[in-house]
Amino acid sequence: MNNWTAHEAEYASLLEKMQGIASKNGLVLNPDKERIEKVLGLMTENLVATGKPYCPCKQSHPLDPSKDKTCTCPEWKEEIAADGHCFCRLFYAGEGS
Fold first, then answer.
1. 84 Cβ partners below 8 Å, 6+ apart?
2. CATH C-level class of 8-93
3. Nearest to 56 by CA among 11, 8, 96
4. By the 8 A CB rule, do 59 and 67 touch?
5. Which of 7, 20, 78, 88 has the largest count of CB atoms under 10 Å?
6. Does residue 95 surpass a pLDDT of 90?
């Protein structure tokens, strides 16, 4: 059970998608499972509400689809290269990166 979303099927699908993105790019997801649950749980809520996985870490309140970013955001690879992780701390550089 995720405290951040009631949409378990959508959450599971989004988690699988993000794991695939990480693997494809030589990255890993944050080892802190609570952080993953929070970020992806809130992203799942945005996905269910809008049909797009808007990043909860970089969104306006309320969400503004005209300017808010979907995951993966345009800056994610630059953030990982500079900091070892993206701004949301969802994706991390993999071992040997």
1. 92, 93
2. alpha beta
3. 11
4. no
5. 88
6. no
Phi first, then psi, for residue 93 (nearest 5°) are -60, 135
pLDDT tens digits for range 1-46: 789 999 999 999 999 999 999 999 999 999 999 999 999 999 999 9
Residue 29: enclosing H or E segment and its boundaries? strand 27-29
d(CA 4, CA 32): 15
Per-domain residue ranges of the chain: 8-93
Q: What pLDDT does residue 1 have?
A: 78
Backbone angles phi, psi at 12, to 5 degrees: -60, -40
